[in-house]
Amino acid sequence: MISRKLKIGLVCPYSWDTPGGVQSHVRDLAEYLINAGHDVSVLAPAIDESALPAYVVNAGKPIAIPYNGAVARILFGPIAFARVRSWISTGNFDILHLHEPAIPSISLLAIWAAEGPMVGTFHAAAKHQKVIYAIGPILEPAIEKLSARIAVSEAARLTLTNHLETDAVVIPNGIYAKRYSKGSPVQKWLGNTIGFIGRFEEPRKGLSILLASLPIIARFAPDVRVLVAGPGDSADFMELVDPQLRDRFEFLGRISELEKADLMSSVSLYVAPNTGGESFGIILAEAQAGGACVVASDIPAFDSLLGGGEFGALFTSEDSTDLAKVVIDLLRDKDKREELARKGKEHAQIFDWDVVAEQILSIYEMAMIGGALITLASENRAWSRFTQREGDK
Questions:
Q1: With 70 as the cut, is the pLDDT of residue 136 above it?
Q2: CATH architecture of 7-174+352-384
């Protein structure tokens, strides 16, 4: 572990004020490192500069583009490049940590603008990235400038190797496991309740799969209810729900981290019916840490996180009938449900920031040593050329 204080620059490619897994990861990492005594600055695009924490520098207003089955709000172009270069030149960082540097964003611009130790973390996991990875010939020289590469999961690592023919060490996303373990059950959320958290209007989050399974579940568990938290227009979604089932849904809107912990400790099951595009599944780790029994689609990232079903139940992705079968089985079998919840809570400890940050700091240390060796080798080559020229005179 690094003992001295570092000046660390973190680059977040996505709009800071839009909810997302990458933004949450960068925020939590920054705050952990600051609390550990390091000097941290985060560069990120943002719509509302007034809402930014003191450690975040606004790179400018993002634009929305379709990406990986969702809408990404990113920033690119010559004006953004000038801001990135200015932030780097004034920051005098010991190390730069760039998130999702393989997409046209300020993370990629930072690679072009910077020299010295740089670490890249790759979050995306998808079979095909036709638009983004069509610029592979441009990306590859930039990615080679990175001193070290991290992938948040095996799925993200395979995406990187398949598209850019380079490798990375797998270090998962971090969570504050202890924070989620302190949730208190809320009386109105107890019973045969199913929790769901996410941007439910995005099709790949899979709430429609859960909706389609509900008529079957309700026949065997007449008192079942679904608690939905996250941004989105609940009125539009409720139009899709059978009028006879509408009273089983409760939309909570955006909830705080404390409320999230309370929710996880209250629900019988936490269901993640995502259809794809996930590289890790941070909400699953949070649900496990909070003591919830997790049910998730068997997409590669979720299958890996749940140990193939050892730390949570899996169902066939996009199969609402199979989801209903798994949910009914667990609602009927309290012992099985509690055993999965116990195993999941134990497993979630490997994602705690105390564990994850130590691994990241070890990568920083290797990157800085490697960067120094590269610089020394470059200086040695220059000295050798100079002495050779002097000898030829």
A1: no
A2: 3-Layer(aba) Sandwich (3.40)
